[in-house]
């Protein structure tokens, strides 16, 4: 799966994780999940969920092409016998981590 462009390649977000020591300089693969599967229909959401799951599995399997930053992944989380769809702002799996860190981005305008 080819990575799709995000504003400035998500450079500010990548730099923040590099500064924190979470991502190395070479960990720069970014995928914007909604880009290849647009729309708010059930079909669009199902497609985003399939893409997200494929990318997570690739990362867990050690795929070198797997992204280090996934923008707006669509996930299904089972709770009390029900499946709930969630969409974190991003998932950040560092190369050596098996865990994907969910990210919620908040922005505040200064005075």
Element pattern in H and E: HEHEEEEE
What characterizes the major β-sheet? 4 strands, mixed
How much is the radius of gyration in Å?
14 Å
β-strand percent reads: 15-25%
Parts with pLDDT < 50 across at least 5 consecutive residues: 1-5
Number of strands: 6
Globular, elongated, flat, extended or rod-shaped: what is the shape?
Answer: globular
Strand order of the largest sheet: 1-2-5-6
Q: From the helix content, strand content and strand pairing, which structural class follows?
A: alpha+beta
Can you count the helices? 2
Return the average pLDDT rounded to an integer: 80
Q: Give the tally of structural domains.
A: 1
Distance between the termini: 42 Å
Helix content: 25-40%
Quick recap of the structure?
With 111 residues, this protein is an alpha+beta fold.
Describe this protein's structure.
The structure is a single chain. Strands 1-2-5-6 form a four-stranded mixed sheet, with no helix packed on it. It contains two helices and six strands. The chain is of the alpha+beta class. The protein has helices spanning 11-19, 42-60; strands spanning 30-32, 69-71, 75-79, 82-86, 90-92, 101-103. Helices cover 25% and strands 20% of the residues.
Strand and helix map with partners:
Blueprint: H1 11-19, E1 30-32, H2 42-60, E2 69-71, E3 75-79, E4 82-86, E5 90-92, E6 101-103
Parallel strand pairs: 1-2
Antiparallel strand pairs: 2-5, 3-4, 5-6
């Amino acid at each position: 799966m080819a990575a799709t462009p995000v504003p400035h390649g998500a450079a500010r977000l990548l730099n923040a994780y590099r500064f924190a020591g979470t991502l190395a300089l070479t960990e720069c693969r970014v995928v914007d999940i909604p880009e290849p599967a647009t729309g708010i229909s059930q079909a669009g959401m199902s497609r985003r969920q399939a893409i997200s799951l494929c990318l997570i599995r690739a990362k867990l399997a050690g795929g070198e092409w797997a992204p280090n930053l996934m923008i707006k992944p669509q996930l299904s989380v089972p709770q009390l016998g029900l499946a709930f769809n969630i969409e974190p702002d991003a998932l950040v799996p560092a190369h050596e981590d098996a865990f994907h860190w969910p990210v919620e981005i908040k922005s505040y305008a200064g005075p």
